[in-house]
Amino acid sequence: MNLDHIDWNGAHSSIHEKGFSILKSVLDKEECNGIIYMYGEEKYFRKTILMERYRFGLGEYKYLQYPLPSIIETLREYLYEHLYTVANKWNDALGPGMQYPPAHHDFLNICKSNNQSLATPLILKYGEGGHNTLHQDLYGDIYFPLQAVVFLNEPGKDYTGGEFIMTEQIPRAQSKAIVLQPAQGDILIFTTQFRPKKGTRGYYRVSMKHGVSAVHTGNRHTLGIIFHDAQ
To answer: In the chain, how long is the greatest CA-to-CA distance?
Structure first.
């Protein structure tokens, strides 16, 4: 993992301004392929979801179980420790809310005390025609306002289509669509539910959802890193 080159000041600015930021080339090809290989090893997972069964789209994803593979646990803890200050600033801007602790294990203890103890990181797989409908990843009363997705395949080579889609809903306005296609090894940080935006009367909430457009050819794998645990 190449963590030393990340410009966190720039990433924080982008997250505050747009609700997302792309961290470039964090994992190399071998590391990405290693995570893809895990997808076929059932020992790592606690639950499999067929998207079409629940009308979530077309594809499949598997929730990892504790203990997490070391590369995923390291990423989860590292990213959280660079994002909790953003989460606290957002809560301060929007009014009274929980203050997130600096260490991820302390946040997981808060989740556990609220009956949320199931691991939420997941690996997703889409084949031809695969897609994910617009949604938000909330698994209980306690949640972290940011999450991450690691892109494990190379767009244009391993698959075509399959763009990452976000919609931004400003009150009393039409929705705005954001279309992204990060490269293999990139990590996209984005808002779980909403972001604050400053208006003439202070800050207000801008609701955001995310999904995946249809894959035209090939296979698309991603690793989703959600920082809160589930019930």
So the answer is: 53
3-state secondary structure of 189: strand
C-alpha torsion angle, residues 129, 213, 57, 31 (rounded to 10): 80
How far apart, in whole angstroms, are the C-alpha atoms of residue 94 and residue 90?
Answer: 6
Q: What is the pLDDT of residues 186-220, one digit of tens each?
A: 999 999 999 999 888 889 899 999 999 999 999 99
pTM over 0.90: yes
Q: Which residues of 1-24 are buried (b: 16+ CB within 10 A; e: fewer)?
A: eeeeebeeeebbeebbeebbbbbe
User: In which element (H, E) is residue 221 found?
Assistant: strand 220-226
With CA atoms as reference, report the closest residue to 39 among 119, 118, 122, 120.
122
CATH of domain 8-226: 2.60.120.620
pLDDT in tens, 27-49: 999 999 999 999 999 999 999 99
Contact 119, 65 (CB under 8 A): yes
For the purposes of burial, counting CB atoms within 10 Å of the CB of 40, is it exposed (0-12), middle (13-18) or buried (19 or more)? Answer: exposed
